[in-house]
Amino acid sequence: MEKPTVFGYICDQPRALRECFAHREQFCAPFAEIFKKHPIKKVYLLGSGTSYNASLVGKTYFSELLGVEVEVCIPTVFTNYVKVNINGIYKKDEILIVAISQTGTSISTINALKKAYEEGWQTAVLTEDLNSPITRYARQIIRLLCGEEDVMVETKGYTVTVLTLYLWALETARALAKLEKDSYEKLLCQLQDVLAQMPKIVESSIAWYEKHKQEMLSMELGVVAGYGINHATAIEAALKVGETFRRPFQAYELEEFMHGPDMALNNREFIYLICSDEREKERMLQFREFFLTVTSHVFVITSEEGPWGEKDLLLPCKTSKNLSVLFYSVPLQVLAALSSRDSGIDTAVYPFESNDLAHCASNQEEKG
Ligand SMILES: O=P(O)(O)OC[C@H]1O[C@](O)(CO)[C@@H](O)[C@@H]1O
């Protein structure tokens, strides 16, 4: 079998997402069951790295479709500093704590879920490995249907997690009759359309990278900015480029970028902008004009009409703001995977001699 690569997994995403959708009953039914048995009003989402970034997206899905309060916590912060239900407004069975860990071996997420479990809260875990250490601390163990991703870097795991969170919110909202049948069916059709368009998104992202490859490979430092739900897409892109291409690459919420980080701009900086269909779009156009006076390395990723230049990627399809996360994640994943491949970086090899300090072995007790 060929050696697995990050790029290979990115190209496998359209299939993986379709498969996940086809088997949604498997993970939606147990999740909806929690809400049927308990009057959940507040959900904590815990995850590190990519799983944290997917949780940021999930927060919007849960809030909008399920009408519950959501708090996304960095696991170590949750373990050491968060007092669950601090103001005492919820009853014990109104709170659900969900941990997300694709491998089930992130020490931070295991410790956070362990605290939740030992304090007696309702706990659930979403993980690809049902025998992983994290499963010891969940009352409900739910499988993440992304398949193996044997390269340390999570890409299809990210989009499948995002899809899972969307389907959890959608199916649970329907099961609790919080969503009318017509609206539910409309959202389901919209989602099916997104899944059908994913191959085109992958193709156009690859073509965009190939066209600008020489310039993209010369990047020494860069930023990526987004807004609304796609602020999380920017954060995930920065993580991906950092762990693959291994260049300093920071994420910002667009407006926040103009509150100081803009002062450090110079003509060597690469700026990637996610221009989605939200209120901030006009501000993005205004900022883009300014960025182009400082550096020529400005790349917009969008499905929107606009004054785009030859460096910008106009995606061939458009969808709702909530589902646009699945589209906008791909070009930046492709940028990360192909720029690392073309500069000879083996993403499966940790660049330092030290052991992986973030994860424990899949059959090991996590360290405190
Ligand atoms: O989802 P998991 O398995 O907990 O991993 C989370 C994070 O850990 C890493 O593997 C390394 O820190 C990241 O690539 C990933 O985002």
Automatic annotation (TrEMBL):
Keywords: Repeat. This is SIS domain-containing protein. Residues 31-178 form the SIS domain. InterPro entries: GlmS/AgaS_SIS, SIS_dom, SIS_dom_sf. It comes from the Bacteria. SUPFAM superfamilies: SIS domain. GO terms for molecular function: carbohydrate derivative binding; glutamine-fructose-6-phosphate transaminase (isomerizing) activity. The keyword Repeat applies. One of its GO terms (biological process) is protein N-linked glycosylation.
